Amino acid sequence: MSVENVETLVIGGGQAGIAMSEHLGALALPHLVVERNRIAERWRSERWDSLVANGPAWHDRFPNKQFERTGPDGFAPAREIVDYLLGYAAQVKAPLRTGVEVKALRKHGDLFIAETSLGQIEAKNVIAATGPFQRPLIPTVVPEAAGLMQLHSAHYRNPAQLPEGAVMVIGAGSSGVQIADELRKAGRQVYLSVGPHDRPPRRYRGKDFVWWLGVLGMWNAEAIEPAMAHVTIAVSGADGGHTVDFRRLAADGITLVGRTGAYENSALHFASDLAKNITLGDANYLNMLDAADAYAAREGLDLPEEPEARRMEPDPDCVTNPLLKLDLRQAGVNTIIWATGYALDFGWMQFDIFDQQGNPRHHRGVSAVPGLYFLGLPWLSRRASAFIWGVWHDAKYLAEHIATRRS
Ligand SMILES: Cc1cc2nc3c(=O)[nH]c(=O)nc-3n(C[C@H](O)[C@H](O)[C@H](O)COP(=O)(O)OP(=O)(O)OC[C@H]3O[C@@H](n4cnc5c(N)ncnc54)[C@H](O)[C@@H]3O)c2cc1C
Q: According to CATH, where is 3.50.50.60 located in the chain?
C-alpha cells in the first residue's frame, strides 16, 4: 500500500479548506488539501437549486476576491459561489486533491495516520475542515410506514421533485422559510412548523443587517464555549433579499403551526407555542432596530429614519387559533421536509476529545491533541466562524499557530 508524507494535511475542500490553504501557503508551510468529492461540493449537491447567499456579495466573500457576476449588493446564487470558490482556489494555488476521502485518522507517535480511499497519508498536522453542517438531522417522529416522502432540506432541490399534494415543512430557520415560500409560490399548500428563532431585519435605515451586525460588534461576539448553542436564524437573500416576516408568509397562504411534537394515527401534533415563538422573534427583530437606532444616534450617522419598519401586521388566524393537530392524510400532505439542522460527524477520528454530542473540545480550533485542528465549525472563535469571510480569519490564526509550533 502506498504511504505518502505531508507536513500538514487539510481535510475538506470547501471554503474552510481553501482559506486554510491560502494562509498556509502565505507562510510557506507545505500542505495538501484532500476533498472526498469535488471542490465546494456542498454548494453543488447539498443545497436547493434556487438558493442564493444569505448575505450580500460585498460581505459574504473572502477579503481579496469579489464576486464577478453578482454586484456587491446582490445575493450570489449557489452556482456562482461554486465558481467563486474554484476561482479562489486557483488564485491562491491551493494544492488540492479531489476524490480522496479520509476514512480514519489516528496518531502514531508524533505522526497522524490518515487512512484514505487512495492509501495512507502521514502528516505532522491535520486540519479538519469538513464543514459546520455535516450530517443532516431528521428527528425520529414520523415512521417510514406512514408512507410519506420525507427528506431533509439538504436533499430538497425544487418543487417538481416532490409528489403532488400539500407539503409540511418542519423548521423555520433560513432553509425552512425559503423552501416553504418557494413551494407556496409553486402552487403548493404549505404548512410550516415554527419554533423559537431570531429574525433580524434584512435592511434597516438603508443598511443590510450584516452591516449592522458588524458595526454593533456582533459578528465578532466570541463563543462563550466552543459548542455554544446554535440559534435558529431566519434570513433570506431570495428575490433580492427581504426580512422574514411570518405574518406575511401566513397572509400569502402558508399555514403556520407551532413546534412539531408526536405523530399518531396519521396525525402530527404541534405545541401551543406558535404565538410565543412569533412574539419572541418580533422582540429579537425590534431589539436589533433599537440597537441600530442607538448606534446611529451615538455616532451621529446621517441615515434615513424608517419608522414603518416597526409596524407589525395583525396576527393571522393560524396564529390566534393555532392548529394543534393535523391529520396529514386528510390534509393531503404527501411530503415532509425536515429543515431541522445538522450534526457534526467526526466518527472517523480516533481521539478522546469529543463531548457527548460529538462536538470536539478545542480553543479557537486548536485541540488538545498536538497538531490536530478544527476549522469552520459554528462559533469556532466567534459568530462569524462558519461564514465565508469569518472562516478566513480563523484559518489565518490556525496557520500562524502551526508556524509557531513548527519553529
Ligand atoms: C442552506 C445553507 C445556506 C448557507 N448560506 C450561507 C451564506 O449565504 N453565506 C455564508 O457565509 N455561509 C452560508 N452557509 C454556511 C456555510 O458557509 C456553509 O455551510 C459552507 O459550506 C461551509 O464551508 P466549509 O468549507 O466550512 O464546509 P463544507 O462546505 O461543508 O466543506 C467541507 C468539505 O469537506 C468534505 N469532506 C467531509 N468529510 C470528508 C472526509 N472525511 N474526507 C475528505 N473530505 C471530506 C466535504 O465533501 C465538503 O466538500 C450556508 C449553509 C447552509 C446549510
A: 3-134+344-406, 142-338
